[in-house]
Amino acid sequence: MPQFNFKLSRGQAEFIRRADDELVIMSTSISYGKSFVAALWLITEMFKGHKTMAAAQSHSALRKVLFDHIFNICAEYHIPYKRNKEDRSIKIGNGICYGFSGEAPNDVLGLTNTHSFVIDEAARCPEQLYKNLCERCRGKGVDTPHHRLISSPLAGEPAAEWFLNLKKENPDCVINGSLYEALEAKFVSKHFVESMEKVYPKGTPLYDQQILGLDVATDFLNAIVKDGDFSDGRNYSPFGRPTYVGMDLSGLGRDRTVLYTVNKSGIIDRCEEQKSDTSSQESMLMEYYTKYNCESGCFDMTGGYGSGLNDAIKHRPSVNMKPITFSESPSKDIYQNIRSEMYMELAQAIKDGFYIDRSKYPLLVEELRHTKAFIGDNGRLRIIPKEMIKREIGRSTDDADALALAVYAMNHNEGFSVAKALNTLNTLKRMGVV
What we know:
Layout: H1 10-17, E1 23-28, H2 34-47, E2 51-56, H3 59-76, E3 82-84, E4 89-92, E5 95-101, E6 116-120, H4 127-136, E7 146-151, H5 161-169, E8 174-177, H6 179-184, H7 190-199, H8 205-210, E9 244-248, E10 256-263, E11 266-274, H9 278-291, E12 296-300, H10 307-313, E13 321-324, H11 338-351, H12 362-369, E14 373-375, E15 381-383, H13 386-393, H14 398-411, H15 417-430
Parallel strand pairs: 1-7, 1-8, 2-5, 2-6, 6-7, 9-12, 12-13
Antiparallel strand pairs: 3-4, 4-5, 9-10, 10-11, 14-15
Helix pairs in contact: 1-2, 2-3, 9-10, 11-14
């Protein structure tokens, strides 16, 4: 066996040091070098004459990551190997490594008498793949099987439940590591770390997840509002001022226009109309905007359905309403879009005591409980698509959209001050004051 002289991080070195342990789980930040050190370990297994297995979420990922690392290490150290593309295997000395993926977990069942396996990005793979691999590590000549799982916190969806449970049940088998350890080992550059710090700002869940390698809090992966988050209403007052309005408009394929008025303490009132036209939408808005002397508001402009209302009210100096397209850019770049920002602000408001009478607004509560957040591929927080929620509850999230718009108007009222000032100026001009 050749003497490797790679400089390894603390976690990588520990992974190699525990080469004979039955179970090792490496759960670290992005770009930590997990696949590289797993490939190094697979090569040592083959040098021992072992029959081993490598798996990933797809055959493509296996080939482009783990197998490529094996080939590169062999090339650097002039290690002869044989590659068989038909059965996805690599031979080094008297040992052999077979490749599998989560796309076809039952392909593993044809093997027996294997000594070990590695699953790359295990948190993305099905439990059946893990179980099948475990069952293959048995037979003649196999005393202690070696199971290796490597993964980073997922961007885009929660980690597989079986993987999280395995970590909880075997805390002594888990190796954690941050991007800063990878930098210290010169596995990544300082420029790369600095660029990641800009994408994932310190103090955010994204920073903890992607740079420190921690499992992201469930609040950011599952329902944005849980049963225990709702306030008991002890600090609620429907008479508090200022007040704000949010309006979700009916359009193609949608049959309701929903309006909510709110103040800092909670919901004041709600109204809805079935398939309303621009005239009735304007009447609804003006009735509630005037009734509660609203400071400002937001309405849904997504798909252009709010164009008529926007034209109808833009010359009303007393109405301070902002059209919102859900896909537009948020005020904070940790969010994917303004819809995600609105919903996470609503969720935070509820946790801070914003009162929703659950017996009075059951449809709203159901929509919120089915709204989930996750980390997108670009590392930004986003809300699951409305179509996914609609499939679960059988309707669009009109109530939740309207309330999120109202809370967004409340939180970003200062951002509307220019429009309000212009409206006031126009009024003064018509009065002849200026």
